[in-house]
Amino acid sequence: MKKLYSILILIVFGITQIYAQCYQCDSITKAFSIGTSAAIGINSFAGGSGSGASGENSFVFGDNAFATNLGSIAIGNRAKSTAANSFVFGQYVTGGGYNSITFGLGTSFISIT
User: Distance between CA 21 and CA 62 in Å, rounded?
Assistant: First the structure.
């Protein structure tokens, strides 16, 4: 668990350094995007291909991954974090429980809602 927090701190520190330059960021919401992703939540980050961070203080990175609620994080291929403070890492996985952590490998045949 300490490693996870250390990695998240390093990611946040890196994003903070990028914000200082404000490359592809919204000066009002401080939302930042890299690639073909869209960050629209206040203080959100989206990176990768077709991903979206619409939750406030949300972070998403991957292919078609989404973080849609307050403080949510989704990292991976089609990973989706839908509840506040939910952390999702993997492929084809969804985290929908508040204050939850989800790791794994799902299947492309399951609808991610």
Answer: 23
39 and 31 in contact (C-beta within 8 Å)?
Answer: yes
Can you name the residues that pair with 73 across neighbouring β-strands?
A: 59, 87
pTM: 0.73
Average of per-residue pLDDT across 13-29? 56
Q: Degrees (nearest 5) of the Cα angle 67, 15, 10?
A: 95
Domain range holding 49?
2-105
**Per-residue pLDDT reduced to its tens digit, 47-96:** 888 999 998 999 999 999 999 999 999 999 999 999 999 999 999 999 88
Who contacts 34 (Cβ-Cβ below 8 Å, separation ≥6)? Answer: 24, 46, 47, 48
Residue 46, strand partner residues: 33, 60
Number of structural domains in the chain = 1
Q: How far is the C-alpha of 106 from the C-alpha of 70, rounded, in Å? A: 24
In one letter, which amino acid is 60? V
Within-domain flag for 66: yes
